[in-house]
Design a protein that fits this description.
alpha/beta
């Protein structure tokens, strides 16, 4: 687990481009043949993935695969509503601050769906890959204000999407329908992992990063937000390849 996460951290867009720029800049200073061209094209690539069109091209294919949740069929009103964990930290004065933005959006989408169907059971999942905090515990502190204890379940020791699917199957089986709540960009990989284990899921994507609206000339300028979107998308493509 640690080795996989360590390798993926270095393959993330920002550190990877930063390392390559540093290496080829050093080569350029030492007059290595072709090094300056590499520096130029790396800067161009950095610019492109930091613009709105670049981020849109990378993220849109992930977020377009599943529609937002609308309703359950009448024979599936007793479904589990599984909220996959996002990021968390141990600082902050409340659970709202300790969960990152994606995790909070997932929790509240799970709450919204579970409120629509009184016979559903909401399941909270996720442990940080470092093991320093439990997303499920922080989510529980929020969810318990909305539902009685008998409608809330927890699954621990789930540090990545593959483990979340495996632990869910062991703990809850495959007989009842499952509404899967996670970020829209994470949903393709999540669905793939659950269906590989024979768990038929009803996708309920949330936390969309690509917003509708016209493109403006200023969108070709780089921004940190667009770079984060591109980095998230490329991380997901790596995860999908790993899960094949």
């Amino acid at each position: 687990m640690f080795v996989k996460k360590f390798i993926k951290a270095f393959l993330m867009l920002t550190p990877l481009l930063g390392i390559l720029l540093l290496v080829f800049s050093i080569f350029s200073l030492r007059n290595f043949r072709g090094a300056r061209k590499w520096v130029f094209w790396l800067v161009v690539l950095f610019w492109l993935v930091s613009t709105r069109p670049g981020a849109w091209l990378l993220m849109k294919p992930l977020e377009n695969q599943y529609e937002t949740f609308q309703a359950l069929p009448e024979d599936k009103h007793d479904a589990y509503v599984l909220v996959l964990g996002g990021g968390c930290n141990t600082s902050g004065h409340s659970e709202y601050e300790r969960l990152d933005e994606s995790a909070l959006r997932r929790v509240f989408e799970g709450i919204r769906i579970a409120q629509m169907y009184p016979n559903t059971t909401i399941v909270l999942s996720g442990t940080s890959w470092r093991g320093t905090c439990d997303v499920a515990d922080y989510g529980l502190a929020i969810v318990k204000d909305y539902f009685p204890k008998d409608r809330i379940k927890i699954q621990y020791e789930s540090r990545d999407t593959k483990q979340e699917a495996e632990v869910f199957k062991l703990q809850f089986g495959t007989k009842k329908p499952l509404v899967l709540v996670t970020s829209a960009w994470h949903m393709p990989r999540a669905v793939r992992n659950f269906r590989k284990l024979g768990i038929d899921v009803i996708p309920a994507p949330t936390d969309f990063r690509i917003k509708s609206g016209k493109f403006w000339i200023s969108d070709i300028l780089p921004s940190a937000n667009n770079l984060r979107i591109s980095e998230t998308a490329l991380h997901e493509y790596l995860g999908i390849l790993y899960s094949l």
